[in-house]
């Protein structure tokens, strides 16, 4: 039986490939979790590397799980907090924004209503070709988005 395609994660019986081989060593991110300081450095490294969101979460999950198995609760919690921090940031147009959840209620409804009004004003300004009115409306949109935790 031939080996399956590399990267599929499948390994048939009698395969020449070992179970824990790194099929793409260029993609490897080295993690350390011997001490809390090592864990903090690893989390900082993962936050700044240029990898997709899911890959960063995967790397920190591996560190967290290994630390748990070894009984290092403090180190595991550092990795968990790192994952939470990554989940609370989003990139938009090359800029990183912090995201916070706003609970449903009258305050949020008021903010959403103000945001929609500001967006309508942007459209009106664009139709009138009024640069000053457009800039003012866009600033209001930005203000409401910040308050809603979207930026």
Tell me about this structure:
With 151 residues, the protein is mainly α. It has 2 domains: 25-87, no CATH class; 106-148. Helix content is 57%, strand content 5%. It is built from 5 helices and 2 strands. It has a two-stranded antiparallel ribbon. Helix 1 (36-48) packs antiparallel against helix 2 (53-69), helix 1 (36-48) runs parallel beside helix 3 (73-87) and helix 2 (53-69) runs antiparallel to helix 3. The mean pLDDT is 83.
Query: Which stretches of 5+ consecutive residues score pLDDT under 50?
Result: none
Assembly type? single chain
Number of structural domains = 2
Sheet with the most strands: spatial strand order: 1-2
Along the chain, the helix and strand elements come as HHHEEHH
**Main beta-sheet strand count, sense and barrel state:** 2 strands, antiparallel
Total helices: the number is 5
Task: Summarize the entry for a quick read.
With about 150 residues, the protein is mainly alpha-helical. The chain contains 5 helices and 2 strands, in the order H-H-H-E-E-H-H.
Write the layout of secondary structure elements.
Blueprint: H1 36-48, H2 53-69, H3 73-87, E1 89-92, E2 95-98, H4 106-128, H5 131-148
Antiparallel strand pairs: 1-2
Helix pairs in contact: 1-2, 1-3, 2-3, 4-5
Which features would summarize this protein structure in a list?
mainly alpha; 2 domains; two-stranded antiparallel sheet; 2 strands
């Amino acid at each position: 039986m031939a080996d399956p395609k590399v990267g599929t994660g499948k390994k048939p019986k009698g395969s020449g490939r070992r179970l824990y081989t790194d099929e793409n060593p260029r993609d490897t991110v080295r993690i350390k979790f011997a001490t809390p300081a090592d864990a903090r450095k690893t989390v900082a490294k993962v936050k700044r590397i240029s990898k997709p969101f899911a890959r960063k979460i995967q790397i920190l999950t591996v560190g967290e799980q290994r630390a748990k198995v070894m009984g290092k609760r403090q180190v595991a919690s550092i990795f968990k907090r790192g994952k939470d921090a990554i989940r609370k940031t989003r990139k938009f147009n090359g800029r990183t924004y912090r995201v916070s959840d706003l609970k449903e209620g009258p305050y949020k409804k008021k903010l959403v209503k103000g945001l929609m009004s500001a967006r309508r004003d942007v459209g009106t300004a664009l139709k009138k070709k009024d640069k000053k009115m457009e800039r003012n409306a866009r600033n209001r949109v930005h203000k409401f988005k910040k308050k809603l935790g979207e930026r």
